[in-house]
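Check out one such.
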Amino acid sequence: MVAQKLSWITLLLLLCQHACFLSARRAKTSLVCEGGSAHLSCDVGYIHVVSANYGRTDHKTCSVGRPFKQLSNNHCFEETSRRTMTVRCNGKKRCSVFAVNSVFSDPCPWTYKYLQVSYECHPQRHSIACEGTRSVIGCEKGVISVHHANYGRRDLGICPNRFVTRSDCYFSQTSSLRSRCDGKTSCHVDASNSVFSDPCHHVYKYLEVTYSCILLVFLCQYALGLIKVIKANYGRTDRTTCASGKPAHQTSNIRCVRGSYLRTMSTRCDGRKSCSVPAVNSVFSDPCVGTFKYLEVHYVCVRKDALRINQISASDSVLPDPVTASI
């Protein structure tokens, strides 16, 4: 097998999904008892909610002065808590959310609950385009990776207008912006109802986008070196890679493999000195919905006359030593 012959010169490159997690970030936590208000903030970057639950999972938290019958149920989960927090906070520098039934609904009546939130601050770019104008996002270096997008209104002070009457108009456009912009160096999108439909009639809206510029480069730096991809997978084959801060259910599927990704990577990279490929669903499709994935690529740098796979041997490599890159 070619891959076995070249194992000593194979480069292993691991790229986390959406590739904005290029280094481990320490998650922040917020815990507030029922009736209080959770305050999330980022001095640098923008909020990304990792996990959230409005309910109760132990007997001690927020228990002072409470009868035991209000604390006995420690299997109280509100499944929509993370989405509620995501809608209200993702992409903002700070947000406040009341820990009350009217916001989260009541997952366990007669139990005294609390809201526990884990979040990270991602150093991303922020773009606002008022309704009727054009959003222009771009990267001087690297390619776009959209983190969050909303066409609606979450703030009364942004794009003020006489039609501004409410600030709870949320209509996620994250998937739409990713399909339009991920992997590009620049992207133009009109902030209009004709593009996104109208999520809240008679409200003056704006398009809000947070994104990163990612440098996902497969590189052969030697004069005669050209890329030859040997193996590639976008998915998950273990529980530890790109798992920092992720809930267990997003890393438990370790059989997320699809054979067609070698062709995808080969088409984009073979025969080039460098190539840039974002680890996103819009490029590879989604092989396992709900699983946090990573792109794993094995490639070698070979001489031009050895590009055909049947001709490659260890002596064809222009790399003098084995190299491992993990991003």
Notes: The longest helix spans residues 81-89. The chain is about 15% helix and 30% strand. The helical segments are 2-5, 81-89, 101-104, 174-181, 193-196, 261-269, 281-284. The two ends are 27 Å apart (CA to CA).
